[in-house]
Amino acid sequence: MENTGHGGSKVDEERGATNNYDAIKSDGGGGICDYFLTFISGLLIVCTFPITLWFCYKTVQEYERAVIFRLGRLKKGKASGPGLFFVFPCIDEITKVDLRTVSLDVPPQEILTKDSVTVAVDAVMYYRVSNPMAAVCNISNYRSSTSLLAQTTLRNTLGTRNLSEILSDREQIANTMKAAIDEATDPWGIAVERVEIKDVRLPQQLQRAMAAEAEAAREARAKVIAAEGEQKASRALKEAADVIAESPAALQIR
Fold it and tell me: What region holds the Band domain (predicted)?
């Protein structure tokens, strides 16, 4: 059924862009040429049986999966592995995907905060491939794309915060970044496990200004404490004077 409206076609295009892997997975048909080449490959395997064993059986590690393309089409089912699996030589192409958690060091980003302060912030992100077939079919290089997305999300998230919030609410900022990156990388088959803010570096002039402010605050508190001590001492002297005034013999006895 064709779409009759412009809005419907636009929605279909967006769904097709985000669910590219689903479209590939559902298209499993092949032409006569595909079947003929598959038959020739199978016949070649039978004719050169002892030798083809070295080329038809592949292995992947426990932490890996193999995405197989047969004559350019994605093979039906899920990714192969771990262990031993069979392929047709000459017509099958294998792409291995590592499922282990990867630590991504986000380079330091120069960020202008909401209160117009320039800071350099770097972070670390931990992610893994949750869907190998989507990671291969939906994006050309998921590692580079995830890194660029993490840098952009770091700048966008911290650009809406004040300096005090960046210094005190690191855990909340990390959770916000994790949710944003995880939602964006879900069509790529990437699952973000953790995001942490490593360091926030301030300009030298701002560091000196904050140090002077902290020193002035400490001096003010010290003066207040000294004044409170003087006040308590004067009250004690007043009480002692009242006791002596009531009983003049107390001074002689002391």
Answer: 55-214
Q: Which residue type is seen at 50? A: P
Res. 251 pLDDT band, cuts 50 70 90:
low
Helices (H) and strands (E) counted in the chain, each on its own, are 10, 8
Tokens 């009250």 belong to 235
For tokens 């004690």, the residue is 236
What residue has token string 């990671």? 135
Give the integer Cα–Cα distance in Å for 79 and 62: 13
Q: What is the DSSP string of 14-54?
A: HHHHHTHHHHHHH-----HHHHHHHHHHHHHHHHTHHHHHH
Q: Are 89 and 56 in contact (CB under 8 A)?
A: yes
Rounded Cα distance between 199 and 119, Å, is: 10
Give CA–CA dist 206/117, Å, rounded.
Answer: 9
Cα–Cα distance between 186 and 19 in angstroms, integer?
A: 10
For 226-240, letters b (16+ CB in 10 Å) and e give: eeeeeeeeeeeeeee
Please state, in angstroms and rounded to a whole number, the distance separating the CA atoms of residues 68 and 76.
9
Residue bearing the bigger pLDDT, 113 or 100: 100
